[in-house]
Amino acid sequence: MGLIVNKANFTIMQKILLITLLFVSTATFAQVNRSANITTDELSHHVNFLASDSLKGRQPGTVHDKIAAKYIRDEFRNYGLNLLGEKGYQFFEFKIFNPNFEKQTHLMVNGDKLVFGRDFSAPTANGSDSLCAEAIFVGKGDAPSYYENVKVRKKWAVIFYPLGTKEYGYLNTKPVEIAKDQGAAGIIIVSNDSLGKYLDVDFRTIPNLPLFILSPEASAKLLKPIGSPMSINQGINENKTPSQPLGITVCGKVGRLYNIIETQNVVSMLRGSDSRYANEYIVIGAHYDHLGLGDMGGSRRPGQLAIHNGADDNASGVVTMLEIAQKLASEQKKIKRSVVFVAFGAEEKGLIGSQRFIDSAIIPTESIKAMVNLDMVGRLRNRELEVHGAKTSLEADSILNALNSDSLFRLKLVPDGLGPSDHASFYSKNIPVFFIHTGLHEDYHTPNDDVSLLNIGGMQQVADYTYRLVYELASMPQTLTFSKSSTRSISSSNTPKIKVKLGIMPDVGGVSDTGLKVIGVTQGKPADIAGIKVGDLIVAINQKPVTNIYDYTDVLTTLTPGTKATIKVLRNNEEIELTVEL
Length: 582
What we know:
Elements: H1 12-29, H2 40-50, H3 63-78, E1 82-83, E2 89-97, H4 101-104, E3 106-109, E4 112-113, E5 120-121, E6 131-137, E7 156-160, E8 169-170, H5 174-181, E9 186-190, H6 195-198, E10 199-200, E11 211-214, H7 216-223, H8 229-237, E12 244-253, E13 258-270, E14 281-287, H9 311-329, E15 338-344, H10 352-360, E16 368-374, E17 384-388, H11 396-403, E18 410-414, H12 423-427, E19 433-437, H13 456-475, E20 504-506, E21 516-521, H14 526-530, E22 537-541, E23 544-545, H15 549-556, E24 564-571, E25 574-581
Parallel strand pairs: 6-7, 7-9, 8-10, 9-11, 14-15, 14-16, 16-19, 17-18
Antiparallel strand pairs: 1-13, 2-13, 3-4, 3-12, 5-11, 6-12, 13-15, 17-19, 20-21, 21-22, 22-23, 22-24, 24-25
Helix pairs in contact: 1-3, 2-9, 9-13
């Protein structure tokens, strides 16, 4: 059994862990009857491994993430699929906020510790070395002349930055660049104004050395040996305040604002058997990453440090894809178009894996004729199956209903190709999409999303249905005709920000004309305190009608913390009015 091919440096212990876990899984699988058909035994085996405590929640960039990727890659290879990329892997990096940034950032003036956020900000994205050195005042610092009578090499350059007007704008980096050219090892920006409230910083334009912006109070403390900020500002304007040493020692270090994470997609292909169609592709995907211990964001129980196994989200989608891949591989001669199988990484971090897949053109984007996304398909209840993207092609609606001619499912067809999962990356490129989903639940993004709560029999039914969909897409004479399903998006850079949280989980697929269904309520949050319950339909907030997730988010942007809102809900066909304190 070979080790995973990766650019990262593995420790010996990580290698031993990887080999041990995969050996145990392989040995266990020897006891399961392998079949080309989709079986509950194989679904159960796969999901019990991927959602086991031993994989620690499959956090991107961890050894457990890589073990999961290797397991999937090896299954693809066992099915006889062609491994794409680097032996089945498509590596990529992304940035994620460093939760320890504030702890790793410190500043001391003559031994007195300043407070991050109150006394200073530190806009250096890549972190910096520690520096303890003398502070040299260099006026406005926007010309070499300010350095004629002082030496700042290996010292702090203290730059006065008079704002003058209360307008938002970007920090002028010219003084910073000049200070660096003069040999300064660190830069402190002082002012008689609250710069942090008005200045943005383009991290791409600032040097990789300690850089601090002080508050007016902290500026006054640092500048005290040569006067008050107001008098210094006036002196600079009248050429009466020269550059000079402050006689103060400053010690500081800026932590790394972002951590660089390396992870991977896992990509394979079943080549179509018909030369006329083999260069047309159907992509079936499912993300395999999850939230680790819940300490890196995304958990609905942020105070609870525990393994988030993500059995439904989204080990269920991955193992369903694996079983479909195995069955299709056994029928390759019947498949006209090529089918590409992708286990996406870093979906929980913002659909990063699917975006990288599309951007890489490892498969020509214009040749992808449809995408099927499996995300959370392990909790089938009351035979209700959601398929999003039903209006992203002219033919989708009729195909989906025809495949359900036996009425096995109560299909809920949602028009939009948008949404918080990997299919959105494909829809944005005008590719018809199908997002298969058995619905959200209270255990979503919590440590309770475990294998014991999955409906394995339901997963088999969903897998059979999805297999027939992919088979149809790969074999039909004509490709789908793309259509725009919606031009609305839940959020964009131009949308007002939501400042309040009610503490509910809404039905994001909501197509009801009656209201927006509440499928989860967080204990102790405003909605719970006000008496909103699971199953309620929100029909209005502050007299504004709510029929779907878009109406809901639009209304939330109008609410502010510390106020009250009136929410009307339908409960057992009775309209109830509740007051929520935000």
